[in-house]
């Protein structure tokens, strides 16, 4: 069974490595011929995943048709804002019975669509029910070093989710299934905003209390938007919700957290973006989520302040003040409003 991994950044490379461990025949597509050539020459992706040997069983190519030839599974691991153009092109070579997995974490700016929605729009109609979403706390650098990791896969059809579960599962990569595509995808995308904010807080010299506050209140506003868009609230207590918020706000590998640290220390967003060849998804997602929150009339104070800092030149310290000095609230406001009849929640 052949799997094609589209995108040779850190995540695509780590996934190709994992699937090869699982005995699959794997191809890895890099957009730039020069990157494909470098990986083939060194059997290592020095630009995006240094220090990890790439098996010579993996076909590394910049030719989409060659990468997708004969593939039964296609894994999309490209930056979210490039998803549409790449899946449109890839769709020409994807067979109708193929399972197509989104591994990217973002929301398309402008259309405000989730990645699986973008894929649905661009793929031929016969492929559209075979789309799955893989998400959860999974830094490429750790997966490629075979460190125990747990993630979640969502799909419209249970069989599709289970096929992907079987494809990816092994002794160091545990995969759960979940029917809630919206929740799994929204959790994976929105956590990057909170990670940038946790980084900013760190760059400003704040401590663990601040990070814990951002993680906890962050998951609440993520849940608020996700539920409004049709997600199940419990998904946000899972791997693609709180799990991914925790890892991204704490890990040294997180590009979003690192970008936030630099911004907190005084660098501009432009400087931070120019200083890396890697994608900082949360910067784009902040804009998309800000627009989505306004469209749906959902209160997202952290995202709103992140938007101010990233897009309107707001001083991060003023953003912190704005968050801290909001009117006092009940911690479980929504729950209380929704479940007014439940006496156990109303203690006074
Ligand atoms: N790195 C990680 O640990 C994880 C990443 N992801 C997600 O996977 C997706 C891909 O991220 P990474 O592999 O980390 O990327 P990366 O930051 O390691 O590398 C970026 C990749 O995108 C390519 N690229 C840059 N501009 C492009 C464009 N305009 N069109 C097409 N390709 C372009 C680069 O050549 C490179 O291959 C993102 O949505 C990310 O959030 C998800 C889970 C884990
Ligand atoms: O999604 C990720 C880990 O689960 C990767 O996060 P970063 O893009 O911040 O590195």
Automatic annotation (TrEMBL):
It holds the Pfam family NAD_Gly3P_dh_C. Residues 4-160 form the Glycerol-3-phosphate dehydrogenase NAD-dependent N-terminal domain. Pathway: Membrane lipid metabolism; glycerophospholipid metabolism. NADPH binds at residues 10-11, 31-32, 48, 105, 140, 255, 279, 281. The keyword Disulfide bond does not apply. Transmembrane segments: none annotated. NAD(+) binds at residues 7-12, 140, 255. Keywords: Cytoplasm, Lipid biosynthesis, Lipid metabolism, NAD, NADP, Nucleotide-binding, Oxidoreductase, Phospholipid biosynthesis, Phospholipid metabolism. Residues 180-320 form the Glycerol-3-phosphate dehydrogenase NAD-dependent C-terminal domain. GO terms for biological process: carbohydrate metabolic process; glycerol-3-phosphate biosynthetic process; glycerol-3-phosphate catabolic process; glycerophospholipid metabolic process; phospholipid biosynthetic process. Substrate binds at residues 105, 255-256. GO terms for molecular function: glycerol-3-phosphate dehydrogenase (NAD+) activity; glycerol-3-phosphate dehydrogenase (NADP+) activity; NAD binding. Gene3D superfamilies: N-(1-d-carboxylethyl)-l-norvaline Dehydrogenase, domain 2, NAD(P)-binding Rossmann-like Domain. Its EC number is 1.1.1.94. HAMAP family: NAD_Glyc3P_dehydrog (MF_00394). Catalyzes the reduction of the glycolytic intermediate dihydroxyacetone phosphate (DHAP) to sn-glycerol 3-phosphate (G3P), the key precursor for phospholipid synthesis. Belongs to the NAD-dependent glycerol-3-phosphate dehydrogenase family. This is Glycerol-3-phosphate dehydrogenase [NAD(P)+]. It comes from Thermosediminibacter litoriperuensis. The lineage of its organism: Bacteria, Bacillati, Bacillota, Clostridia, Thermosediminibacterales. The gene is gpsA.
């Amino acid at each position: 069974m052949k799997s094609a991994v589209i995108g040779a950044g850190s995540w695509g490379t780590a996934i190709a490595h994992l699937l090869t461990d699982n005995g699959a025949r794997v191809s890895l597509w890099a957009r730039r011929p020069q990157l494909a050539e470098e990986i083939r020459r060194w059997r290592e992706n020095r630009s995006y995943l240094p220090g990890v040997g790439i098996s010579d069983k993996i076909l590394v190519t910049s030719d989409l048709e060659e990468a997708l030839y004969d593939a039964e599974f296609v894994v999309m691991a490209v930056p979210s804002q490039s998803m549409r153009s790449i899946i449109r092109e890839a769709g020409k070579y994807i067979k109708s019975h193929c399972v197509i997995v989104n591994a990217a974490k973002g929301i398309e700016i402008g259309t405000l669509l989730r990645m699986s929605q973008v894929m649905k729009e661009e793929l031929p109609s016969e492929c559209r029910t075979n789309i799955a979403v893989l998400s959860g706390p999974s830094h490429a650098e750790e997966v490629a070093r075979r460190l125990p990791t747990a993630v979640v896969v969502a799909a419209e059809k249970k069989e599709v989710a289970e096929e992907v579960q079987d494809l990816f599962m092994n002794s160091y990569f545990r995969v759960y299934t979940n029917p809630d595509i919206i929740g799994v995808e929204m959790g994976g995308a929105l956590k990057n905003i909170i990670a940038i904010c946790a980084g900013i807080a760190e760059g400003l010299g704040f401590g663990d209390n601040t990070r814990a506050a951002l993680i906890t209140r962050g998951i609440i506003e993520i849940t608020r938007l996700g539920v409004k868009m049709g997600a199940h609230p419990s998904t946000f207590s899972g791997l693609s919700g709180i799990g991914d918020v925790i890892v991204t706000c704490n890990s040294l590998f997180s590009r979003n957290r690192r970008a936030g640290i630099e911004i907190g220390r005084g660098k501009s967003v432009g400087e931070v973006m120019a200083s890396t060849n890697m994608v900082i998804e949360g910067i784009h997602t902040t804009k998309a989520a800000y627009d989505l929150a306004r469209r749906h009339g959902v209160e997202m104070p952290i995202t709103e302040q992140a938007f101010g800092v990233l897009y309107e030149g707001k001083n991060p310290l003023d953003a912190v003040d704005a968050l801290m000095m909001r009117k006092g609230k009940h911690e479980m406001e929504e729950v209380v409003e929704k479940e007014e009849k439940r006496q156990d929640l109303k203690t006074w």
